[in-house]
Design goal:
The protein has 177 residues and is an alpha+beta fold. The chain contains four helices and seven strands; from the N terminus they run H-H-E-E-E-H-E-E-E-E-H. 42% of the residues are buried.
Length: 177
Amino acid sequence: MNAIPRKAGLALLAVGMLASVSGCALDSRADGESAVEEPVRTVGLAKVDPCTMLTEQELAARGGRPPGYPNNDIAAEPGCDFDGDPFGYSFYKNQEMTVERYGERDVWSRFERSELDGRPAAITVVRGSASARICSTMFDAGGGVITVTAQETDDEGRDECAESWQVAELIAAKSPR
């Protein structure tokens, strides 16, 4: 069953790769002036561990099975994958992005802006991942963004977007502003 959350992780991996590859163009200037480089954030989400965003009891109550599997395929977007039934989960953090900046990407079949715990949020589906029953909720936290992905492990028509939102609510309540 380890493959289910890995699939969710792969979907976010693709998003992260697209974000990191195209991110350079955001600060390019037509007038030839160089952009002022922002220092990499060293606070905020730096101490947040994606594998401990939920307690073992919170995960188990939703069918998740700890321990999680660290997913550090993208340095700027460390994450953790969890097997589970009826959903597998992946949690990621990114100190370099925000919900607004992710929304500028042309990778979404669904990007529904909202607010979660008083902060910008979005329910997202990457193009091509809807048939795999993968949905994410992302929200601004600690100067960056946290992404919660849920993937239905068996195709029984459960709402993976509602699930990712509910899990994100649990995590947001404990996350830095």
